[in-house]
Amino acid sequence: MDQQQNVDFVLRTVEERDIRFIHLWFTDVLGRLKSFAISPEDLEVAFDEGIGFDGSAIEGFTTLEEADMLAFPDPSTFQVLPWRPSHNGVARIFCNICTPDRKPFAGDSRECLRKMFRRAESAGYLMNVGTELEFYYFTDDDHPVPMDEVGYFDLMPSDSARDLRRDTVLMLEKMSIPVEYTFHSSGHSQHGISLRHAEALTSSDAIMTAKYIIKLEAFANNIHASFMPKPLTGESSNAMFLHQSLFDYEGNNVFWSEDEESLHLSDTARHYMAGILAHARELSAITNPTVNSYKRLAPGQGNGPTHAMWGLRNRAAMIRVPIYKPGKDLSARIELRSPDPMANPYLVNAVTLAAGLDGIERKLELPDEVTSELISQDSAMLESAGFDPLPSNLDEALDYFEDSEFMKNALGEHIHSFFLKKKRDEWAKFASVVTEWEIEHYYKNS
């Protein structure tokens, strides 16, 4: 369906289904969902001319002197919101953000990914992404209090959130977001949901929608859903695992190879993985963008990788290669395990695609697979084996990010400079706060 057909379908649906409010969705640079509503009478004008708004109020957009922005609805993302009444209904559309002269805005996360997607297309590739999101349900908005003591995949009567997970899945499917499976994860009151693969932009839109609906359904049940990477000391961390693959224009999965000795990984897949591993430390500020993110990546914290390494079925590696199933060459993929759910999915997919394409273009060699024996060793042993350690905190990650011309090119100067300044400020505020741990360990003994 072309653009005009999509527009005609949306306008017809709005009229036939009595839609009275259309929410225009977009994200700021930090990956937070933004929205404002227009009436159906303004929708056709919005498609043609955009809807103006004050960009200076949005993180990472513009200054007061350059405040005017235009939001152009993307008709392919139109969905009626199923949790709102059918009479005088409500719909949502993701938007592309432009400057007053209708040029794509350099601070728009969707445009950043779209530019990288076009670069991949020019090289003959289409990127598909599947996602597994982890999150916690808590009874308190202010303090993380678990609701159960259930473990990974356990089927227990005490799994008090199973009905909530079911209702969330049903709501997502009504929003045309197919769910592969949902489960109780390994932490107390921790849960996971796996979204089926789609092309990268659609997948990123789905992640934003899923996070919103997970929190919305929880709120309706007086529960707080948290995507904080490490909300509880001693419990499992939350991740955003990304299953990535590249296809050609004929629909062939270019990551797959018939060669069993190569683990059914094509040279393209190996170069792609090598590119991500080569840029791993530069990527960390985007894939793990908060102070708390690095509590998940610390040694001994479970599912968070500590070094730039890969492994077959190895869940402690930064990149895991899922086992190949005979006759399932379209499912050949890599699993990127470093991102957490507080990351901006558009930017994560953009920079990892950029790194992978760089690996393909330069034909970078994939290092040796990490073994289970080696991965159990300390950091010095891993480094001596040639595996670079990932940053240990946000400040270190920002040092790599700031010095990286690769990241400046992948994100553009606007996003790169804003993100760096914002996160430097975040680290400075964190570093100046006296924590309960410091009081406990130093106050009486000082």
Indicate the low-confidence ranges by residue numbers.
none
Instruction: Characterize the overall form.
Output: globular
- How does the helix and strand content classify structurally? alpha+beta
Look at the structure and give the mean pLDDT: 90
Gyration radius from CA atoms, angstroms: 22 Å
Given the structure, what is the number of helices? 15
Order of helices and strands: HEEHEEEEHEHEEHEEHHHEEEHHHHHHH
Number of domains: 2
Number of extended strands: 14
Supply the CATH superfamily name of the largest domain: Glutamine synthetase/guanido kinase, catalytic domain
Q: β content, as a range?
A: 15-25%
Q: What would you say the CATH architecture of the largest domain is?
A: 2-Layer Sandwich
CATH fold name of the largest domain: Creatine Kinase, Chain A, domain 2
Main β sheet profile: 8 strands, mixed
